[in-house]
Amino acid sequence: MKTRYIVPFFFLSCISTQAQVLIDRHLATSASVTLEFGTQTRGILLEPATLPASPSAGTIIFDDSTASLRYYNGSSWSTAATGGTINTVVDYTTTSQVIINSTFSSATGLFIIEATNRALVLPKLSNGLLAIKSPTPGLLYYDTLLKAMMVYNGNLWVAY
């Protein structure tokens, strides 16, 4: 008799569960995290790319024509920060996608986080611009000392 109630409860609780992906971590710092990285001296690399023709709102890209991190808000791209190394793209095509928190997404992109109440937490470093010895254009992390997202543009680190 008890099994009749326990089994449906178990399946219903699994349906509402949302995944947390942790890299170099064992515990998330918050329940609002979808993807979180450990504290090793590493960043996330956004390969320089050409701005897509039909981006989805929320798209973040390292724009090869401006050497700047760009964000698409649904109607326009954010302003570029100039001064980086441009035209480094070696174009290739792929049909693969990584989607976290869903089996399908209507968004266009290679790496998609589908969540309405969770977010990506960047790798956190204290003064990473000194710790990362050979950065690559498009590398980003959150600097806990500067309290800013840092992006390497090929020549210098830019704070956002």
Defining traits:
160 residues; 3-stranded parallel β-sheet; disordered N terminus; 13 strands; alpha/beta; 2 helices
Write the layout of secondary structure elements.
Blueprint: H1 2-15, E1 21-23, E2 33-37, E3 44-45, E4 48-49, E5 60-63, E6 68-71, E7 98-100, E8 111-113, E9 119-121, E10 124-125, H2 128-131, E11 139-143, E12 148-152, E13 157-159
Parallel strand pairs: 1-2, 2-9, 4-5, 7-8, 10-11
Antiparallel strand pairs: 3-11, 5-6, 11-12, 12-13
Could you explain how this protein is built, in words?
Strand 10, helix 2 (128-131) and strand 11 form a beta-alpha-beta unit. The strands form four sheets. Strands 3, 10, 11, 12 and 13 form a five-stranded mixed β-sheet that branches. This protein has a three-stranded parallel β-sheet with strand order 1-2-9, with no helix packed on it. A three-stranded mixed β-sheet has the order 4-5-6, with no helix packed on it. It contains two helices and 13 strands, in the order αββββββββββαβββ. It has one domain (19-159). The longest helix is centred in the N-terminal third of the chain and has 14 residues, at 2-15. The protein has 160 residues and is an alpha/beta fold. It is globular, with a radius of gyration of 19 Å. It has helices at 2-15, 128-131; strands spanning 21-23, 33-37, 44-45, 48-49, 60-63, 68-71, 98-100, 111-113, 119-121, 124-125, 139-143, 148-152, 157-159.
